[in-house]
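BUG: 3D viewer hangs when loading the predicted structure for this chain

Environment: internal workstation, default settings.
Expected: structure renders.
Actual: progress bar stalls at 90%.

Input used:
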Amino acid sequence: MTESVSAATVTCQALDDEALWRVTFGGTRGNILDRPTMSAIGQTFRRARATRGLKAVFLEGAGPHFSFGASVQEHLPADVANMLAEFREMVFDVLSSDVVVVAVVRGQCLGAGLELASLCHRIVAARDVKLGQPEIALGVFAPVASIVLPERLGRARGEDLCLTGRSIGAEEGSAMGLVDEIAPADPFDNALAWARAHLSARSASSLRMAVRAVRANLMSRLEKELPALEALYLDELMATSDAVEGLQAFLDRRPPVWRHA
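Structure tokens produced before the viewer hung:
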């Protein structure tokens, strides 16, 4: 079964009698996570939560890349509050689905794309991936990554990615614990083999309880800490000239001129 969840943004293919779903988002260049795409992903995971017998979801971007990240245009002052709210809702839809989620990553996985992949229980990556949180290069920061990457990688490694904005490859991602498996060919094949080997014989209802248990602390942290980071972003960061300058410079395809204020 293949179903279009939202106009050309998300498709869902059921496998193994609906025990597994292959969810593909995007279709535009770079699979930008704009608000309609975030909404469609969230809707898919709400439906996943209501689907009895579902054990795991494979999440991948359409085409050669996972995602270049959120829409830079939607980061500008007129739209940023609504964008952050939509992203937060999607994050909690993914986490509260109570199914195992495996990110299938090809090509570039940047910004909000890496935040989304990092929420997954497992990242299976192609050898050519580029992973990074480049927000700081645009004069902003990534609220979700500021919590999730130190939680997943340890403080020093999480801070490295958030503060430098550098991109890393599959081997370095594996060494720091971000990538769980590097696939020699199509990473979806490896993800599917892993799920069939380790999840297919399990009870779907018991898996959901186990997912909820192991993610309880992360869910609690995000519920408590994310609103404060969003307030820092909206009330203080977006009041600086450099945040707007960095975003506008990216859209204008020119180097930013920082005022350091």
